[in-house]
Amino acid sequence: MKRVFPPPCPAVFLHLPMPRPASSSSFRDLLLVAAVLLALVAGAVGPALGGPLVLDDEPALALARDIAARGAWSEVWRAGADPGETLRGRPLSAWSFALQAAAGLDSPPALRAGNVLLHGLTALLLALIVRRTLIRLSHPPDRARTTAILAAGAWLLHPLSLSAVVYVVQRTEVLAALGSLAALAAFARSLDGVPVARLRAATVLFCGAAMLAKETAAITPLLLALYDRCFHAPSWRDLLVSRGRFYAVLAATWVPLGVLVAAGRGRGGSAGWDGGVSVKDYLVTQGEAIAGYVLHTVWPHPLVFDHGPVLSSLPAALPAGLAVLALLGAALHGAWRARPLGFAGTAFFLCLSPSSSVVPVASQTIADHRMYLALALPVTFLAVLLVRCLPRAGAAAGAVAITALAVVSGLRHQVYRDEITLWTDTVRTRPSNPRAHHNLGRAEFARGDLAAAERHFTEAERLRPGDPDTRHNLALCHVRAGRHAEARSLLEGVLTAFPEHTAARSALGEVRVELGRVALQAGRRREAGEHYRAATSLRPADPRPWNNLGNVLLELDEAPAALESWRQALAIDADFIEARRATALVLLHSGRATEALPHLERLVRAQPNNAEFRAALAEARRAPAR
Question: Would you kindly state where each structural domain of the chain is located, as residue ranges?
Answer without folding.
Answer: 40-413, 574-626
